[in-house]
Structure formats: structure tokens, C-alpha cells
Amino acid sequence: MSENIKFSKSVFNKNNYQKVVDTSFKQLGVKSIQQQIEEQPTTEEFFELYNQLFYNIPELGSTNSHEYLVKTSGEYIDFDQNQEEIQALQAEIAQLRTELLDAQRQIIELQTGTPLANPQ
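Predicted structure:
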């Protein structure tokens, strides 16, 4: 009871092999870096999603929250440095307002000849 079995073998040269045989890992679900980059949302798409999800995002939390977004974005743009500059400018504005008020009080006193009560 012996039978002869015929085996056949297909051979491709190196140039035709990649044209005929798919050597990618598509079946495993592995995506190339280029595919991953192309699937990333654009900045415009991100903000559309953000606006849609705004009220679903928790206010506070170490990750995935509005607090997290504020902290990480603030660090990225060096927000604390800007805050220090803003506070310094606000203090300067307050000082200049005080000086302007004093100068206006002095002008009125000189024009009327009557001393005004100092509000300080």
C-alpha cells in the first residue's frame, strides 16, 4: 500500500518575492509608525473632540481632568513665569494709581486753596 506523493515547490527570485508574497504583519494588528501618525487627530479634530467631551471631563484629578490639562499646559507655556510678571505689573499699576490720585488731590488743593483729607 505505498503511494507516491508528488511535492511541488514554487520558487521566486529575490526581486519577485516581495511582489508576490505579502511580508507585512497586517494579520497581527501591528501598524506601522506612519499609519499610527496618520491616525492621530489633527489639532482641529482634537479641539472638536475636547469641546464635545468638555462636560464629561472631571474637573479635578491627577490625570484625565481639566486640572491636569491646566497644569500640563501651564508647565508647557511657562505660565507661572507669566503670572509673576502679571502680578508685578498689577502692583505697578496700583502704585501708579495711588500716585495719580495724590497728584490730582494736590492739584485740587492748589486750585481751591483748601486742604483735602488724605484718604490713607
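Summary: The mean pLDDT is 86.
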